[in-house]
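Task card 7
Instruction: Convert sequence to structure tokens.
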Amino acid sequence: MLEMTREEFEELVAEALDRIPPELTRLMDNVAVFVEDEPDPADPELLGLYEGTPLTERGEWYAGVLPDRITIYRGPTLRMCESREAVVVETEITVVHEIAHHFGIDDERLHALGYG
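Output:
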């Protein structure tokens, strides 16, 4: 397994977020991004997870709720990648994938766009 500290991985996630175009980040609403070491043991290869209500499903009822949560998992990413460069690429793909869920884009469409 490739070695990378939690701090280094968090920095890669931050850099991936910084590469999201500002016109999209301005539209993001009530969402927080976290880095965790491992996903639920039931899905040990999960790279990222979006939990919340996509922007496309929010209505008048949407108020006073906790932020949506995007979690990027360090362990599975490091296990699947053979180089730091591969981790950079995979982290960016995962961050974009989970943010896309916040915008209401489903897995089928993301796979078609190359963010599967």
